[in-house]
Automatic annotation (TrEMBL):
It comes from the Eukaryota. Residues 14-79 form the BTB domain. This is BTB domain-containing protein.
Length: 205
């Protein structure tokens, strides 16, 4: 992501490249230096002589959200206005997109947005399964989901009805978290105390 306003102006002067997304090849047109600013994967894909990128395995709706973030550093209105479950689903797809494209800044933005939904709803069993099946053990999102059950499960007993649907690794993480936690108190929720523990270091990104 351009570090200064001057860098951003320069990025907006760069060439336009075509990004073909999905099996139906929906075309997005994006500035080269914007598209390659925070993703090493896309930077490598955009060689100096390349005028297009093909992403056949991605969905246009997920790329559209990413493209909006690249330009405005926010979520588009269509994502903000969703009900909480649909918003969480969209955010999780966005995080997985960021993981595939090795975009740490995007992942950090998305995980912060996920945390903001926890005042309404904690993750469902299906959302837990998605995260644990597609992300590695050291993933901050996996840690956040386990912590949400360790510290927030007592406030919402609906998860207990579907706990058997959750992956074994998740249940182990929750058990270890319960064994290590102190007496429950609201301020102990780690995402409220320091959400930085779920963000990745961007120093070398």
């Amino acid at each position: 992501m351009p570090a200064t306003p001057e860098d951003r102006v320069e990025a907006l002067r760069s060439d336009i490249v075509e990004v073909s997304v999905g099996p139906n090849s929906q075309i997005f047109r994006t500035h080269r230096d914007i598209l390659s600013a925070t993703s090493p994967f896309l930077k490598d894909a955009l060689r100096a002589d390349s005028t297009s990128v093909t992403l056949p395995n991605e969905t246009p709706i997920d790329f559209e959200l990413y493209d909006h973030w690249l330009y405005f550093h926010t979520l588009p209105a269509r994502a903000i206005n969703l009900d909480v479950r649909a918003k969480q689903d969209a955010l999780l797809r966005a995080y997985l997109f960021g993981a595939r494209f090795v975009d740490i800044l995007y992942k950090n933005f998305i995980i912060t947005s996920v945390i903001e939904t926890f005042h309404k709803k904690y993750p469902t069993a299906n959302q837990v399964k998605l995260v644990y099946e597609q992300l590695p053990p050291h993933s901050p999102m996996r840690r956040l989901f386990a912590d949400s059950y360790v510290y927030g499960g007592a406030k919402d007993d609906s998860w207990a009805k579907t706990v058997e649907q959750c992956p074994r690794d998740f249940l182990i993480d929750v058990t270890m978290g319960l064994m290590g936690r102190k007496a429950p108190e609201k301020k102990a929720c780690p995402w409220l105390v320091d959400k930085g523990k779920y963000l990745e270091d961007v120093t070398n990104a």
